[in-house]
Amino acid sequence: MRVAVVGAGSFGTVVANLIASNGNPTFLAMRDEAQLQSMRRGSENLRYLPGLKLSEHITFTSDFRHAVANSSMVFVVVPSGSFREVAREIAPHVRPGTGVVSGTKGLESTGFRLMSQIIEEEIAGARKGVLSGPNLAEEIAAGKFAGTVIASEEEDLCLAVQNALATGTFRVYANSDVYGVELGGALKNIYAIICGIAMALNVGQNAIATVITRSLAEMSRFAVSMGASPYTFLGLSGVGDLVATCTSPHSRNYQLGYRIGSGLSLSEAMNDLGRLAEGVNTLRVVCRKRDELNVYMPLARGLEQVLFEDADMGEVVIDLMTSEHQPDVDFAEPVNWSRNR
Asked: What number of CA atoms fall less than 13 Å from residue 95's CA on the CB side?
């Protein structure tokens, strides 16, 4: 099949290379003309993935419309703030029945819209899907073993994505819970910032394990309030992506948190990082929805206080540690204590 990947950041480049390495003619579309010329000259993304020689089956282009019009499947892998604009631009050129798959992990900053919902709203006749999981681009580019999840309500689209992407080192699993998979990919960025802060504070591995576990509880609790399945969060797009993003120095959100935990302000940390960390925008959007739905999310609330309300980090940690004890596992059957005495 012929495939278009719109967005030539690190993950978009990796997705295009996996597809092209399987022999599929692939467009990799980008706006930056200097980046385009550089990639045409050297078949390499020097900005984001230096050292990865890209497949000869990739055509580098800045013409989004031509790429999309001549493809039977389209992956959109751009920052969440640009997603709707790009969807609108390509919409007239997407052929009816084309699979349009989001590879973006984030939420639209105005309102509460997932990328799959934007596809529905902007691209009439498209079959929507979402790609998410523990997908650190640098590791995939290096050929290390990894897995991902394609979520769609249409089985044939899941199969097509599996056939396009799967390699000897990259497995592709399927799920029909589109919003659950998508929320997992967006929400985990919040908790990666928290874990980066915690690592900088040298809290210890027991504390990190506790933070990750309670983060999973918050993520699933919030997602279920939005109609997702709690079981989705036991998979790659839930706990898998959370663990990878919360512990890897390759994670931009983890890096941002580490800088904040080391004493930088949010603006200083973002400038120092020099790359977009989706978790900051996601936190703002999620906290508004959390208040609307009255969902218990103490970790997200604590990070909100630190980033946006200039709260003292130490005081926030003390508040979290002395808050009311909660059941260990959400959505589990309640224990009948009298029966166990």
From this structure: 13
Question: Token digits for 302?
Answer: 């604590």
Say what the pLDDT of residue 341 is.
46
Contact in structure between 86 and 31 (CB atoms under 8 Å): no
Output the furthest CA–CA distance in the chain (Å, rounded).
Answer: 73
For strands 26-29 and 58-61, give the pairing: parallel
Query: What would the pLDDT profile of 130-183 be if each residue is shown by its tens digit?
Result: 999 999 999 999 999 999 999 999 999 999 999 999 999 999 999 999 999 999
CATH 3.40.50.720 domain extents, the chain: 3-176
Residue ranges of the chain that CATH labels 1.10.1040.10: 180-321
Catalytic residue among 53, 105, 188, 289: 188
- Interatomic CA distance for residues 152 and 226, integer angstroms: 17
Backbone angles phi, psi at 324, to 5 degrees: -60, 140
Amino acid at 323: S
Residue 185: name the closest of 102, 297, 68 by CA. 102
What CATH code is assigned to 3-176? 3.40.50.720
Active site residue 53: no
Which of the 8 DSSP states describes residue 109? T
Is the Cα torsion angle 279, 285, 291, 293 positive or negative in sign? Answer: negative
* Rounded Cα gap, residues 235 and 175, in angstroms: 10
Residues forming beta bridges with residue 58, ordered by sequence position: 26
Work out the number of other CB atoms within 10 angstroms of the CB of residue 188.
33
Residue 15 backbone phi and psi in degrees, to 5: -60, -50
Question: If you classify domain 180-321 with CATH, what class do you get?
Answer: mainly alpha
CB 211 within 8 A of CB 205: no
Q: What is the pLDDT of residues 255-286, one digit of tens each?
A: 999 999 999 999 999 999 987 788 999 999 99
pLDDT in tens, 110-134: 889 999 999 999 999 999 999 999 9
Measured CA to CA, the distance from residue 196 to residue 275 in angstroms comes to 16
